[in-house]
From TrEMBL:
<protein>
    <recommendedName>
        <fullName>Triosephosphate isomerase</fullName>
        <ecNumber>5.3.1.1</ecNumber>
    </recommendedName>
</protein>
<dbReference type="InterPro" id="IPR013785">
    <property type="entry name" value="Aldolase_TIM"/>
</dbReference>
<dbReference type="GO" id="GO:0006094">
    <property type="term" value="P:gluconeogenesis"/>
</dbReference>
<keyword id="KW-0312">Gluconeogenesis</keyword>
<keyword id="KW-0963">Cytoplasm</keyword>
<feature type="active site" description="Electrophile">
    <location>
        <position position="94"/>
    </location>
</feature>
<dbReference type="InterPro" id="IPR000652">
    <property type="entry name" value="Triosephosphate_isomerase"/>
</dbReference>
<dbReference type="InterPro" id="IPR022896">
    <property type="entry name" value="TrioseP_Isoase_bac/euk"/>
</dbReference>
<feature type="binding site">
    <location>
        <begin position="233"/>
        <end position="234"/>
    </location>
    <ligand>
        <name>substrate</name>
    </ligand>
</feature>
<dbReference type="GO" id="GO:0005829">
    <property type="term" value="C:cytosol"/>
</dbReference>
<feature type="binding site">
    <location>
        <begin position="9"/>
        <end position="11"/>
    </location>
    <ligand>
        <name>substrate</name>
    </ligand>
</feature>
<dbReference type="Pfam" id="PF00121">
    <property type="entry name" value="TIM"/>
</dbReference>
<comment type="pathway">
    <text>Carbohydrate degradation; glycolysis; D-glyceraldehyde 3-phosphate from glycerone phosphate: step 1/1.</text>
</comment>
<feature type="binding site">
    <location>
        <position position="212"/>
    </location>
    <ligand>
        <name>substrate</name>
    </ligand>
</feature>
<comment type="pathway">
    <text>Carbohydrate biosynthesis; gluconeogenesis.</text>
</comment>
<feature type="coiled-coil region">
    <location>
        <begin position="136"/>
        <end position="199"/>
    </location>
</feature>
<dbReference type="GO" id="GO:0046166">
    <property type="term" value="P:glyceraldehyde-3-phosphate biosynthetic process"/>
</dbReference>
Length: 248
């Protein structure tokens, strides 16, 4: 049985002070959650969030990283830095990084390899635009993203990672994919992992849905056969809403 994983992606929100307030408000509300709970604050709040969640069931993730260990890469943060902080997860290839910061699949592949090398578990985001969905390119696009992003990555690493299926048209728009549509794409992702690796890897990897997840949508999403959790943006910024989601 795969343990569900629900992660909050705070994006570029919350100052250090606000981050501490949100974490303190969440600790008690999520302590009995029947899933892995992960918070992904901005880099500036990572050290204090790691400290605040010590001895709780909350884990911490970063929203991005570079693939080199150190060097002349102004403004970047390395996997070694994250590892040393005690950060367990890192979001890689979020659509906002692909769109606004021009991250391509080749770069994402390098970042994934670096994350595995330093023992930080990646949450790889894949998903189609509205235009791609309307022109029936969703499955072709997802297959291509998986093949390029996971190029030369071993099954043992893939078993340890998380994939988030995030249709771009559903992110921050209030439009969620129907639970059945999300499950269909997620089952397709699992089938691709089966084809690229093996049955055991496909049955072990956890695949989340992301895109305007709310307390009112999570139950139906989690009832699907292949959805193993959620990557939550906007709704992870409010303690009561995020707690209701992880306590689905
Ligand atoms: C996200 O940031 O990954 C996301 C899914 O955002 P939202 O929940 O706000 O759509």
């Amino acid at each position: 049985m795969r343990r569900p994983i629900i992660a909050g992606n705070w994006k570029m929100n919350k100052t250090g002070k606000e981050a501490a307030q949100l974490v303190l408000a969440l600790i008690d509300k999520v302590k009995d959650a029947n899933c892995e709970v992960v918070l992904c604050p901005p880099f500036t709040s990572l050290p204090q969030v790691v400290t605040l969640v010590e001895n709780t069931n909350i884990k911490v993730g970063a929203q991005n990283m570079y693939y080199e260990e150190s060097g002349a890469f102004t403004g970047e943060v390395s996997p070694l830095m994250l590892k040393e902080l005690g950060v367990e997860y890192v979001i890689i290839g979020h659509s906002e990084r692909r769109q606004y910061f021009k991250e391509d699949d080749e770069l994402i592949n390098k970042k994934l390899k670096a994350a595995f090398l330093y023992g930080v578990k990646p949450i790889l985001c894949v998903g189609e635009t509205l235009e791609q969905r309307e022109s029936n390119q969703t499955f072709e696009l997802i297959k291509m993203q998986l093949e390029q992003d996971l190029k030369d990555i071993k099954a043992e690493d893939v078993k340890n990672m998380v994939i988030a299926y995030e249709p771009i048209w559903a992110i921050g728009t209030g439009k969620t994919a129907t639970a059945e549509d999300a499950n269909e794409v997620i089952a397709f992702i699992r089938q691709n992992i089966r084809n690229m690796y093996d049955e055991n890897t496909a049955e072990t990897i956890r695949i989340q849905y992301g895109g305007s997840v709310k307390a009112s949508t999570i139950k139906e999403q989690m009832a699907q056969s292949d959805i193993d959790g959620a990557l939550v943006g906007g709704a992870s910024l409010k303690a009561d809403e995020f707690a209701a989601i992880v306590n689905f």
